[in-house]
Design brief:
Layout (H helix, E strand, L loop, with lengths): L9 E4 L4 H12 L8 E4 L15 E3 L2 H7 L2 E4 L17 E4 L6 H8 L3 E5 L10 E7 L5 H12 L2 E5 L3 H10 L5 H16 L4 H21 L4 H11 L2 H11 L2 H18 L5
Parallel strand pairs: 1-2, 1-4, 2-3, 4-5, 5-6, 7-8
Antiparallel strand pairs: 6-7
Helix pairs in contact: 5-10, 6-7, 8-9
């Protein structure tokens, strides 16, 4: 795994927010970076959630972090990015902000070697999928480093266009949110059928936990799995064919499209 030497440093602006902290914890617990080589900047200077790594450097001065680090990660709310202006010329700048294009990042930082990446909340348990896109000035060595860095948070892959980063902010960026919506619909249906709410929630959570692991380990695609259950012609097939005949698939697409358009507008919630 590629690793930046301590003297060069990795800095995370906004590194105590939920995403910045999750990435930082993954880097540290995977020994990707020495604690002395990790810099965190935030407005308050607080060190909460980093008690296990007392050697991590903290600052309230974003430029101090940039000057100490060869790799700078931007992990602030998109609506706050306008207030982050640093001189990061010569550094590799990685943005994990939704809705902030490379052009704007270059304008606010002076950097040319810029990568946009989109981890999700599962980075906290090292199960994120992180798509990333690199500007033309990003080197092959940089790309190897970025792939390894986000590999500490789960799985990662380079995508061919910047627009796909905005699309993935809608597809995988929500993390558990869209899945939770579907789960809640199942739970509420069970409750209406007389199932105790606690049992319904436990049952559906366990269903998704088991199903997610099974699908991740399976050689079959989700479409092939659906086909196999329909071909079995049992009770599950009756439900699946009803889903197929409904507007459910189209409605899911509409929700993803709405989130994508919000990402393209540059006014996302993160």
């Amino acid at each position: 795994m590629a690793r930046r030497e301590t003297a060069q440093g990795i800095g995370i602006i906004g590194g105590t927010g939920w995403l910045g902290a999750a990435i930082a914890h993954a880097l540290l617990s995977s020994n990707f970076v020495d604690p002395k080589g990790l810099w965190i900047s935030n407005r308050s200077g607080r060190r909460s959630s980093f008690e296990a790594w007392p050697d991590v450097r903290f600052t309230t001065d974003n430029q101090e972090l940039v000057d100490a680090c060869s790799t700078v990660m931007l992990s602030v709310l998109p609506q706050d990015f306008g207030g982050v202006a640093v001189d990061a010329r010569g550094q590799l700048v990685i943005s994990v902000m939704a809705g902030a294009p490379i052009e704007a990042i270059a304008r606010n930082t002076g950097a040319e070697r810029i990568v946009r990446a989109l981890p999700n909340a599962a980075a906290d348990i090292k199960l994120s999928f992180t798509p990333w896109f690199a500007a033309l000035a990003v080197t092959a060595e940089d790309k190897e480093f970025v792939q390894s860095l986000f590999g500490t948070c789960g799985r990662a892959d380079e995508v061919p266009t910047e627009d796909q980063i905005d699309y993935f902010s809608a597809l995988t960026g929500p993390g558990p949110a869209f899945v939770a919506f579907y789960m809640d619909a199942m739970i509420q249906h069970a409750v209406r059928r007389g199932v105790d709410p606690k049992i319904a929630e436990l049952a559906v959570k366990q269903l998704f936990h088991g199903a997610g692991n099974m699908l991740a380990a399976s050689d079959l695609s989700p479409a092939q799995t659906v086909r196999a259950f329909i071909d079995y012609a049992g009770t599950t097939a009756a439900g699946l064919t009803t889903f197929q005949a409904s507007s459910l698939s189209r409605d899911i697409g509409c929700g993803i499209d709405a989130a994508y358009q919000k990402a393209k507008s540059g006014m996302t919630d993160g």
